[in-house]
Design goal:
single chain, alpha+beta, Muramoyl-pentapeptide Carboxypeptidase, domain 1, L,D-transpeptidase catalytic domain-like, 3 domains, eight-stranded mixed barrel, four-stranded antiparallel beta sheet, about 30% helix, elongated, disordered N terminus
Amino acid sequence: MYRILMLLWLLPVIPAVQAQDVAGKVSVYIAQKERMQQALFLYQRLVDTNNWHTFPVNLKLQSGDTSRYILPLQENLLQTGDLSLDNATQQPAFTNEITRAVRRFQERHALKADGIIGPKTIAALNITPEQRLEQLKCSYDDWIAATHNLKQPYLLVNIPDYTLQVIDSNKTVLKMRVIVGKKDHQTRVVKSEMTTVVFNPSWNIPRSIAAKEILPILKRNPGYLYKKRMQLFQPSPTGFVRTNPWRVNWKKVTEDTFNYKIVQRPGSINELGRIKFLFKTNVNQYLHDTPDKDLFKYDNRSFSHGCIRLEQPMALADYLLKHRSGYSDKMIAKFKTDGIPDHYIRVKKSMPLLIAYQTAWVDDNMRVQFREDVYGFERGEREHVLVE
């Protein structure tokens, strides 16, 4: 306990950073940089103190329980600042104060904040300070590389956090859940500019999806395309021409020989929903609406083929068209309801966009946040490169 007390003056709260830019406002880049530097310093002290406890993977604790693991749990929560010294106990009892501290720990790790020690919370507790320090270092390096000279306002999509934020005047003015790519269809890390809003988009289905996922369905039922409001096109000397899927001998078509194009028409069942957002990139990746709203209720939301699905796409459209293009509320409402297929609208002042991969950062409440390394980048499974 003595070693913990020596650290308590450092650990409960990371002080607010008052870094100033030339205009006299807090710079998000500088503020996050200095917050992360302080977090690195604090977790280095945790490593040096060497007093972190790990727990059996099958352990379960909740309010009212007594256990020999409660005092070690309390020591961990004291070291991370989730529990204050005033609320600590000398008894092996799971108090209300420990319950609240566990909730704070869970919130910082994007876990269900129920105050109960279960498998997921144990997994987070069993990650050592050495591992957390490396996580902070990776995120710090990525943040410095990606955000240097990033101008406000900007859009920030953080892949491991499954969120999109609009940062304007050093404040988060819009935040929503997102769905990102599966591990085998990863969303790319990108620094770019948002340039275009498209209402009532068609979906030009990538060949990889058409050949791998739709072709097996067509072999069983060519009527699938009609049901999904999809149109089939085949190559001709003058370009792609529409053709009847019932007239194709699908048994002879393989994934390698598939040379058709499939387009899903705009509508309520279109996989892109009612709107998509385009940015400058050489990667086939964009942001869009989705008809599958139920997927946003899950904590782990890596379900897509690489594009980013938005929980509140119309709210983002409102911001871009009003604040970056100068359209009135009446005109924006007209865009949403006029039903023009593939209605492209240029964002007059293109908006900086950063699709980042940050598993650790310090939030506006000065709490160190950690997220799961969903793609294994920090374990070295694949190098992630910033696309500009």
